[in-house]
Write a structure and sequence with these properties.
This protein is an alpha+beta fold. It is built from ten helices and seven strands. Strands 2-4-5-7-6 form a five-stranded mixed beta sheet. A two-stranded antiparallel sheet has the order 1-3.
Length: 332
């Protein structure tokens, strides 16, 4: 028995079925591509951030960190990178602390040696001793300059009162030997400033070292801390002495202009000025209540460190015009 089916009935719906199958296949392909793209992005984006952060860290951006997201392997890699970056910052800070501590420890005995060498009188042995002390001071100055060139960009801060007490304890032995009266004010409470402890310690040592080098023995000195609180959003550190004063404050602030004799790097007040301006503050020199020099270090607490340092210096020059300045043989 034969059954004849018309061709139209046999092919009925085949085209529609092929179209449906093609549509389903196309949809599966689009879905697979979209899924692969999402998965690839989830893998590539954290890897790209990690690569960019490693590149920035290699160029000295020590504050860079990576979000710990993405797959488990990339999260572990990001955590390891962040830990490594923290270790690098801590190691660099430790090296700077060591360099600063070395300079602090050497400065006082060198000053005593220079004063003793100056009292040896004349003769070949005395000249050789003075030359050796001068050479040793130049080597220490080079160490200090090298330490200053190592920049750490990670945000940091410290208690200014604690740093001042620590540095004054260091200098108190020399002050006692030279019969100097030392007064501290405002350091009995915590005063937070946006400056790293080594930087603030180096700035204080520069100021106190200037007092000991450029004023006679027995000259009184004072260190005052004024915390303006939330109203002024600033902290002021005053270092005053009863010496002869500074004849040309603008020249004293100029890098490399120092003519304070052996042991002077010409960087002392400039180091202090850069510390102040890194917070958006500034450095000013005037006449103290003790009759000598008053160095006023203004530290801003609002992080306005982007202000133009040149404009601040020009402003200080305009303010200093017309001011009667005392004469002084040596520059800080």
């Amino acid at each position: 028995m034969e059954v004849f089916v018309p061709r139209g009935v046999v092919t009925s719906g085949v085209t529609t079925s092929w179209l449906v199958l093609a549509g389903v296949g196309l949809a599966l392909i689009v879905g697979a591509v979209a899924t692969a793209d999402r998965l690839g992005t989830r893998l590539v984006r954290p890897a790209g951030r990690l690569a960019d952060a490693a590149h920035d860290l290699g160029h000295g951006e020590l504050g860079v960190r990576v979000p710990e997201d993405g797959p488990a392997e990339l999260r572990a890699a990001a955590a390891a990178f962040n830990s490594m970056a923290d270790q690098v910052v801590q190691l660099l800070a430790g090296e700077r602390e060591l360099a600063a501590d070395l300079s602090h420890r050497l400065r006082t005995p060198l000053t005593v040696l220079r004063l003793n060498a100056a009292s040896l009188g004349e003769g070949p042995a005395a000249d050789q001793t003075r030359a050796a002390v001068a050479q040793l001071e130049r080597e220490v100055d080079q160490i200090i300059r090298t330490a200053r060139q190592q920049k750490t960009h990670a945000p940091s801060g410290c208690d200014a009162s604690e740093v001042i007490r620590d540095r004054m304890e260091f200098w108190s032995a020399l002050a006692e030997d030279e019969n100097r009266t030392v007064r501290l004010a405002g350091v009995d409470r915590t005063v937070r400033v946006p400056v790293a402890r080594p930087e603030l310690g180096a700035a204080l040592d520069a100021l106190l070292g200037n007092v000991f080098r450029h004023t006679p023995e027995g000259t009184a000195l004072a260190v005052d801390v004024h915390d303006g609180g939330d109203a002024s959003n600033s902290v002021i550190i005053l270092v005053s002495d009863a010496g002869p004063g500074i004849a040309d404050p603008d020249a004293a602030l100029r890098r490399g202009h120092g003519d304070g004799g052996p042991g002077s790097t010409g960087l002392g007040l400039d180091i202090v000025r850069r510390v102040a301006e890194s917070t958006g503050g500034d450095l000013r020199i005037g006449r103290s209540m003790l009759g000598g020099t008053e160095v006023r270090v203004w530290l801003s607490l609002n992080g306005a460190g982007s202000a133009d340092p040149g404009q601040r210096r020009r402003g200080r020059k305009r303010k200093s015009r017309g001011r009667t300045r005392p004469k002084e043989p040596a520059e800080h």
